[in-house]
Specification:
This protein is mainly beta and 332 residues long. It contains three helices and 20 strands. Strand 2 and strand 3 form a beta hairpin. It is elongated, with a radius of gyration of 28 Å.
Amino acid sequence: MLAVLASALFRLPVLAQQAGRETHTGENDDHDEIVEMSPFVVETRRDDGFVAASSLAGGRLAGDLKDTPAAYSVITKEFIEALGITDVEEANKWAVNVSTSRGDGYSDLISRGINPVVRGVASGGQQRNFFPSTFKPDSYNLDRYDFARGPNAILYGTGSLGGLVNVVTKQAVLRKTIADLGLQIGSWNRQRITGDFNIPVGRIFAARVNVLRQKLDGWRDNEFDNRKAVDAAFTWRPVRNLRIQGEGEWGKFERNAIITTIGDQVSGWDGVTTASAPQKTTMNGAAAKGVRRFSYPLGVASLGSAGGLINYGGFYSTLGGGQTTGVPVGGK
């Protein structure tokens, strides 16, 4: 994902509000930096530990959470680090009135993202910096998780009855050096390394790089969740009232999703009935014998066949015990 933002900064000093002039906290700007608030950017530097100060949830303009006319909660970077939260699925467990149903794992095979249930209603999906996103974000390059619960009449086109989940990525910070390394080691061969580096260049430019490498097995055989990613961002402020930001991310996530439900497709078979070739009609008493016929064309890819695709229409397959009222349990 590549995102570029250019916005005019309206200077709203936190320590004093004096219209028409800049406010300083000391004589030397290099040591006493003013926290500037853009009306279009979430200022995560104002967060205090587990408590977030501002958001864009009210109407896409930055404002204090206490004044936001919506049910809204935030998981800050400090909270993420303290509990070792690695992705939005784990963050959902700590959100208010938010849950995620994994089921038997089948959704992991066909869905890249997580759509949590908010107040008993499916959410409007995921967002990244308030832009729609379809993949499950890792926390290595995030400043916070935002959870909007329920509808928001102020927002047009992005709200929903169940609310939404948004993540705020780390941006390059002017005049501040950051060098953080994180390491997690745990059960099932868990190895996770993260890095966060912010490098200011003079007073008007800064670059930030976040890196991730994870190796994780599961409690079941052949289960794994391996991740490699790097996120690069920059901030350039050529003049006082103009800031240009850019961000790009590359990643490779490899995961073997395991289905936890065991499907019975054989125990109803009587152990005797066979069919060596496609049949034009269904044999008598097929259900009692624990078999069924595919009466429709059924294409199955097979690496062992010459053509690579076999039509199983007319073939028989076994059934699980008690699958229908006519199928005996245990094949007898």
